[in-house]
Amino acid sequence: MKYMLIMRATDAARQDYEKADFTEIIEKMGAYNEALLKAGVMLAGDGLADSMADNFVVDFSAETPIVTDGPYGETHELFSGFWMIQVASKEEAVEWASRCPLGPGSKLEVRRVTEMSDFGEFADNPVLQQQETWRAESGQV
């Protein structure tokens, strides 16, 4: 089962983070990432850039998608990074998420990634089958 762990933080937590010892943060996150890698569960993970200069929103509410530099929704919680992990169970995902070295005001939203079995009667759809083939060919799990 694949899960996405999405880091979220309140504005207050973000301000605390900016005052914290960044070397300590890097060491704690590095140790967490190393544990994920050594356990063979980490598929990907990255932080998201703080600067909004290169970020944008695509709004699909009109017939033609509209690209803007915002709004980003509620700013009381910011998405700041993610991990993709592959584990045997939801309980294992909970265990890994609980070990993440985040502080007060931060949260991890953990979402299971869809699998072919989620598509039920559509699992034999040629488009879905092609996507599975592309994933296998590209080395994605």
Instruction: Report low-confidence residues grouped into runs of 5 or more.
Output: none
Structural class: alpha+beta
SSE arrangement, N to C: EHHEEEEHEH
Radius of gyration: 18 Å
**Span between N and C termini?**
10 Å
Q: What's the count of strands?
A: 6
Proportion of residues in β-strands? 25-35%
Helix content: 25-40%
The major pleated sheet works out as:
4 strands, antiparallel
Could you explain the architecture of this structure?
It is a single chain. By secondary structure, this protein is of the alpha+beta class. It has 4 helices and 6 strands, in the order βααββββαβα. The protein has a 4-stranded antiparallel sheet with strand order 2-5-1-6. The mean pLDDT is 88.
Throw out a few tags for this protein:
141 residues; alpha+beta; 4-stranded antiparallel sheet; two-stranded antiparallel sheet; 4 helices; 34% helix; 26% strand
In short:
This protein has 141 residues and is an alpha+beta fold. Helix content is 34%, strand content 26%. The longest helix is centred in the first third of the chain and has 17 residues, at 22-38.
Topology summary:
Blueprint: E1 2-9, H1 11-19, H2 22-38, E2 42-47, E3 57-59, E4 66-68, E5 78-86, H3 90-98, E6 106-112, H4 126-138
Antiparallel strand pairs: 1-5, 1-6, 2-5, 3-4
